[in-house]
Amino acid sequence: MAGETFLAEKFGVQPWSKDFFQILFVIAERCALLQSIVETLEIDDDYRAGLVANIADIMEAFSSGSTRNPWQNYGYTKVGEVNVGPLKAISGLVRQQVAYRKLSDAEIAELEEQVAALLTWLQEHQLAEQDFIRQSLMEGLEHMRFRMARLTWLGWGYTLESLREVIAAYMLLERSGVDPTQNPEAAAMLQKVGAVIKTLYEKVSAAKSVAETGDWLVRAYGAGSLMYHTGKPVVRALIGTG
Predict the structure, then answer these.
(1) pTM of the model as a whole
(2) Among the listed residues 118, 192, 105, the one whose alpha carbon sits nearest the alpha carbon of residue 148
(3) d(CA 225, CA 229)
(4) pLDDT tens, 79-98?
(5) How far apart are CA 22 and CA 172, in angstroms?
(6) 3-class SS string, 189-233
(7) What burial letters (b/e) apply to 63-98, b meaning 16+ CB within 10 Å?
């Protein structure tokens, strides 16, 4: 079976569809993140170089050349023990820098239900002004649902990453100065979206307290992404430094 067919079946999508490309991109992104972490580890230089090479070899399994060859003869060898084994050995060191609690099936189902309900609500409630914010919220939530459904095997860090758009739109709406008496729809939107964000962080935060982790990530991700929506340098104002 060609790699493209094998992987598409494993991913549960059509070969070379939009979803297929999205998953390949996230795998490449994950490998790049792991390489950057390995570069910072306090280990021997030759061992570090070998690990970086292992990750690069794994990435080859998802290249266009690999996906068009028989998976068993090419891609499978790249993701086999020869490359994965050394990475398992440093998993404890990596977790010191990036770690998220693994969610149970019940918790995943609860989050999916909340996100689906919020999406339905957003589709039924428009904003009198700045309705593009509602559209941004829906797009971000759809991306999050996709990652929850297709990419949980890559770790919950990717579900958090997909919240960037949601948080950016949320903060943009929040900063517009919503008066509940004058704009009840916007006020309700803030409350409902904020509740879902809070629930997710409460479930996946690790190492730090929920409040500290949630507040920092909302500000960092939201501020970093908000420039995409506004095109203005508003980061310092959002995080209270200017």
Answers:
(1) 0.64
(2) 105
(3) 7
(4) 999 999 999 999 888 878 77
(5) 26
(6) HHHHHHHHHHHHHHHHCCCCCHHHHHHHHHHHHHHHHHHHHHCCC
(7) beebbeeebeebbebbbeeebeeeeeebeeeeeeee
Do residues 104 and 69 touch, judged by C-beta distance below 8 A? Answer: no
More confident residue, 26 or 178: 26
pLDDT band at residue 22 using 50, 70 and 90 as cut-offs = confident
